[in-house]
Amino acid sequence: MSTVDKMLIKGIRSFDPENKTVITFFRPLTLIVGPNGAGKTTIIECLKLSCTGELPPNARSGHSFIHDPKVAGETETKGQIKLRFKTAAGKDVVCIRSFQLTQKASKMEYKAIESVLQTINPHNGEKVCLSYRCADMDKEIPALMGVSKAILENVIFVHQDEANWPLQDPSTLKKKFDDIFSATRYTKALEVIKKLHKEQAQEIKTYRLKLENLQTLKDAAYKLRESIAQDQEKTENLKCQLQELEGSIKDVDDKIHYAEKTLKDLRKLQDQISTKTAQRSTLFREQQKQYAALAEENEDTDEELMEWKTKFEERIGILQTKISKLEREMNDTDTKSSFLKQTINDSIWEISKLQTEAEAHVSLKNERDLSIKNLFARHNLGSLPKSPFSEEVATNLTNRVKSRALDLENDLQDKKKTNDSKLKTAWDCYMNANDRWKNTEAQKQAKLEIKNGIVKRIEEKENERDSLELQISNVNLSQIDERERKLRIEVERKTNQLSEREFESNIRQKQSELYSIEQKIKVVNREKDVMDADSEDRVKLSFKKAELENLKKKHRKIVDDQKDKIKRVLKGRVPPDKDLLKEVTQALRSVASEYDNMDANSREHGKEVDKLQMKMEEIKTNLYKHKRDLESKKRHVETKLQSLDPQCPGIHSYPKMLESFKENRDYKISKYKSEEGIQNTLDYYEKEARTKHACPCCDRRFAAEEEDEFVNKHRSRVANTSKALKALAEESAIADTNYKQLDDLRVVYEEYVKLNKETIPDAENELQQINEELDRQSQELDDTLAVLAQVQSDKEVVEALKHPIETADRYFQEISALQKQVEDLEYKLDFRGQGVRTMEEIHSELKSLQRTKDNLHNELEKLREEQRYAENDLSSFQIRWHTLREEKVKAANSLQDAKRVEDELERLTEEKAKADLDEKELAEALGPLSKERDKLLADHNELKVRLNRDYEELVEQKRIFQQEAESLFKMTSKIREYLDLKKEDRLKELQEKKSLSESELKSCDARKQEILADLNKSKDLMRNQDNLKRNIEDNLNYRKTKAEVDELGREIETLEESILKVGGVSATESELQKLSQERERLLSELNRYQGTMSVYQSNISKNKIDLKQSQYKDIDKRYFDQLIQLKTTEMANKDLDRYYNALDKALMRFHSMKMEEINKIIRELWQQTYRGQDIDYISIHSDSEGAGTRSYSYKVCRLYTQSLIPSKAE
After folding, report:
1. Any residues with CB less than 8 A from the CB of 340 and at least 6 apart, and which?
2. What is the pLDDT of residues 186-224, one digit of tens each?
């Protein structure tokens, strides 16, 4: 049970903010009596505010609750309430709440500034303060008291203005009773349940609509699947029929192929017969032509004719060899003759060139001699021998000219050096004079600057002197000396007084006395502590033993409660208390490690499953793309094939069609080339006939009209052949175009075959493998997750066990520490001795020592104060004395500075006069130096002009001589070059060579005439042998052609016999036509079946695409999930309804029971206190306004002779 002990009030309503008022509450009853305005209600308000934090009514947000600052004459007042109470556990707690009310310019501001709870630590007896926010404090105090806040507000500390709350309206009354009964959370729970019931009912409606929609989609998906299954079944039946038709078509194709092959062979035989017949006709005509062209038919055998031909060939070979030899010799002679003619021409050209050069050489020598004479005459180089000059004389004279040119060059260099030295000397004289003038000018400027600096310094010193004289005029040195003397005397007097009082020694004496008194107090306090220790230690020992037993109970309770879990975690073993936490922690670590490993494995398996799913989706996508490409390629090829051959059965007939089209193209092209060859032959025959006027086959001469007849006949044949050739060209072009179109489809067909036979089957196999691998990985993942769930449950058990085990271990550690403390206290109490003095004597001695200490401390402070006053007085006089001395020193320094400034002014005046004199002397010396410098500069310039003119004249002479000498040197070099090349000897050699070549050319011409005569003779003999040889060759050719005609006749007969054996062409063609009609019938039926099947397949693909839409995806699972969600939500809503009704009934029953208890207490109290006879008792009556509702009608009634009358009814 919680009780209130004391309460301190300060600054609340009429309670003074400066004085503390303490109210002590007694048990079992405390009566508070006082006049109006004394503060009785304020005490109840403070109790209520301390416990609940609620301000009383009409407090105006605290403004009228805190003491008014205007009444206190302050701008701010602070209020505080301290309440000490015992908690429900019997623990002392002090609640402190502080407030502040501040007067602003236009309003007052209320603020709660502190909320503190004070408790005493049972272990060390120290106070512990905890600061709280106001809201936390308002919850903490009712919890410590064990009473709800509603009871504190409305029952225990109810305000007198709110004491009639039972007479308020039913809704307010119900709220207060709910708060008092702590039923608010249940009523809120009912409201939440009702709201949740309503929301879930709305969700159920939504779920039903979703389920109906999913049912519709499910039915549509079912119909689509049924349609797909039916179409697939029909497609399979059609496929079987198509396979049968394809087999029949294949048989017919084989028969057609055999018939076509047979027909092709027959036509080939016929073509061979036609070709050989044409060849035989051509050869026969050629035979007739050869027979007609024979000059004489020889009766000899072929061997004899060949022998004759061989001998003729030998003789002709000898003649040809001789002719070739003579021709070669003739060619050699011609070559040699042409070479000799070229040599003679070259020699003539070179001779003329050398003769021209010899004439130029003679003229150049004459010109050289003349040039030498002119040079020697013009430049006086000496005497000359008679001309013409020899080469040696000319060389010597040229060397003399060269030496003369070198002499002129040396003279020019010497002249230049002389001129430079003269100019340098004149310039040095000018520069020396100029340097002297510049030095004098610089000295003058320096003197002028020095003079200006001296003038400035004189002005500064005069200003400094004036300021010092002004300072000295304001200073009275005699007065300063007198004041300084007086202050020195006063300082000496104060120093003597301070030394006579001996403050330091007195203070040290008092400090030593104070220290000895403090030591005595410490000794007495230790003695007192020893006397108090025994009782305090026994109290501590009892507290610690009680706490030790409490901790042991808590520890044992935790261990017993968790014993089954410990055995489960540690496999049936319960370790000692000290090792319990360690082993549980190890078990948790091992389980956590196992869980982490299993979790990592599950994540790895999950990643593998995800990878396989992604790979499977990728393969499905690729497979779908491949199939789509396959269909597109198939449609493309079949479209092309149908356009080329409407009877084409499909893409599988592409190779046969390609081969047949190729054979057709080759046949057309070969036929075209054959006809073209015949036309070319006929054109050639016509041309030869017109050119030679003879038969082109046998070279027989035509008669008068025979040539025209032959040409007309060939022209008619050529015209017929041209028409056939044009038709064959068109047919071959069409066949070639068709074949190229088919050949262009080769790549697409090969890709189709590769997709159909390799890519798609490989992808399907890989998809099947990945499906199997995915199933295996999914199974492993499920197994891992099952094990992981088991490990996780074990981990959760260990984690749930860890916290109580840590608490138990903490209790065990505290038990061990307390056990040691208890043992130490027991040992201490058993062996401690007792004192000889009483506690009263010790207290009296302590008081006397404390008084002595206080007196000594006061005396010490007084001495220190007097010492500080005397030292401050002395220091003030010393400061004044030092200040005056500094002033005197400054005045003396000012006098010295004034004297120094006067001396410097005199010195500067003298320096200024000296500078004026030096400046004048330098100005007078500058005039002559300037004139001398100008004269030397003019002399230098005049000398430079004259020397340059002389030097230019020498240069011009040297240039003229140099030009004439170089011209001479060039002529000399050309003459020497001509001589060095020995061109005169070369001219003689060429003239001799020319004469020799002319004689050889004459002999070559004579030999050519001889060879030409022999060559003509041999050619005449060769021509006669050719006519005989041609007659023999014509006989041999005639016999050969006749043999070929006979051979072709025999071959034609053999081919005709082969055709008769195979059968006629017409019979084979009729059989082939019948087979083609049968094949067309089968193909039309096949196309009809394929069209029907494509319709079914398009329906299947369309339905499958519809099924792949998002609305049909996982429709069965979605329908099942939605159905489960609807049913579970309906069941949960029904459970909520049942729980709501049960909680409502229980809450009403709880209200009824509580109201019965309250009315019973009210009746007993009324009968004990009220002595009237008119009212038996009063009661609070609560009626529910309807069955199953939570609306109550509360009213206070009076009982008059067993009849209830509401209080408000009267």
Report:
1. 997, 1000, 1001, 1004
2. 778 888 888 888 888 888 888 888 888 888 888 888 888
